[in-house]
Amino acid sequence: MTSISITKARADLYNLVAEVNKNSRPVMLTNKNGKNGVLISEDDWNAIQETLYLNSDSRVRDSILEGGQTPLEDCLTENEVEW
Predict the structure, then answer these.
(1) Lesser CB count within 10 Å: N end or C end of the chain?
(2) In the chain, what are the domains?
């Protein structure tokens, strides 16, 4: 993960935001007192929030884990799913 001081980040914030959106790589914002922050894209933030939400419901989490162990030949194709 790239690290940059908050002072330098402030001077180049527009480009930093563009970089994290383009590369989906977080940037650590450091300061002198050691209480750092992390800059990530909105898409990455939303993905993290969705993952946390899905993991917060044990039934959903268990269903996902069970589904991940199902052999592909036993899974439905997209065309077989009834919406």
Answers:
(1) C
(2) 1-40 (3.40.1620.10), 41-71 (no CATH)
